[in-house]
Amino acid sequence: MSEFIIVIIIVIGFFTWRFFARLKSKDGTYTVVEHRNGFKYHMTFARNESVKINFKDLEDILCPYCKYRFPKMLARSRKCPECKEYIYKVKDYEKGVYQLLTVKEHEKETKLEADERWMEYSRQIKDQSKAGDYRGLSHTYFLMALQQYNEEKDFIPLLQQHFRFELLEYQRIGCKRVRMIYADGKQGRTYSIEEALNNKLLPYKKSGNIDWHDMGYFEPIL
After folding, report:
1. Is 174 helix (H, G, I), strand (E, B) or coil?
2. Do the beta carbons of residue 178 and residue 191 sit within 8 Å?
3. What distances in angstroms separate CA 138 from CA 41, 86, 187, one per listed residue?
4. Are strands 78-79 and 69-70 parallel, antiparallel or unpaired?
5. CA–CA distance from 117 to each of 144, 147, 166 (Å)?
6. Whole-prediction pTM
7. By C-alpha distance, which of 136, 140, 134, 216 is closest to 178?
8. N or C: lower Cβ tally within 10 Å for the chain?
9. Residue of 118, 78, 82, 86 whose CA lies nearest to 105
10. What is the DSSP code (8-state) at residue 212?
11. 137 and 127 in contact (C-beta within 8 Å)?
């Protein structure tokens, strides 16, 4: 009886080894096949960040509206040839596959991602404030301002915070003055860092409404 159990264990071990050996690829990734809702997903995971993940197509590529069957994965986001509804093609980094989404599904995914990024930025602001990390605060406020701009919201207060902490970092390393460099590369006036901070200056030419692409930067003068 004991010999039979040993044989069974050896057989199970052999087939388990063959299974994982078959899934493992030469580039250090491994693939897991999952059957869900009638679809077969080939999910590829990287063992380390240096390995590129190759996204796989779903075997059944269907329009998320009318279930029209595409012969192969779409090359880009486009309208369905059957129902004429717009389809978004997106990468699912968690599963390592491409997905086709409706407009509403894409908007929901985008909002969730934006909310998660905002929460991460808020956490970074808290940590960087405790550490007195002006450089980090400047960068995080820049990313927050960019997100507000992309969402067509008021980004100026956050951009002012970006430049404020940038100026404070210049001041900390011994700079006394800064020069405005405009978006077109032309030099503007020179100000003391105290003047720039007290007047909440932004490096842009006053021309009515401020657009993100009108913004220049402060050049430190040692």
Report:
1. coil
2. yes
3. 42, 38, 22
4. unpaired
5. 9, 9, 22
6. 0.64
7. 216
8. N
9. 86
10. G
11. no
Q: Which of 134, 129, 136 is nearest to 164 (CA)?
A: 134
Distance CA 81, CA 68 (A): 8
Tokens of 6: 């040993």
Q: Are 70 and 62 in contact (CB under 8 A)?
A: yes
**CA distance linking residue 178 with residue 118, whole number of Å:** 31
What letters, b where the CB count within 10 A reaches 16 and e where it falls short, cover 146-185? Answer: ebbbeeeeebeebbebbbbbbbbbbbeeebebbebeeeee
Please check whether residue 66 is in contact with residue 80, taking contact to mean a CB–CB distance below 8 angstroms: yes
Give pLDDT, residue 40: 43
**CA of residue 107 relative to chain centroid, distance:** 15
| Cα end-to-end distance, the chain, whole Å | 85
Question: Tokens for 128?
Answer: 């960087």
10-residue mean pLDDT series, the chain (222 residues): 61 54 48 45 49 70 93 93 95 83 93 93 96 95 93 93 96 93 92 95 81 91 82
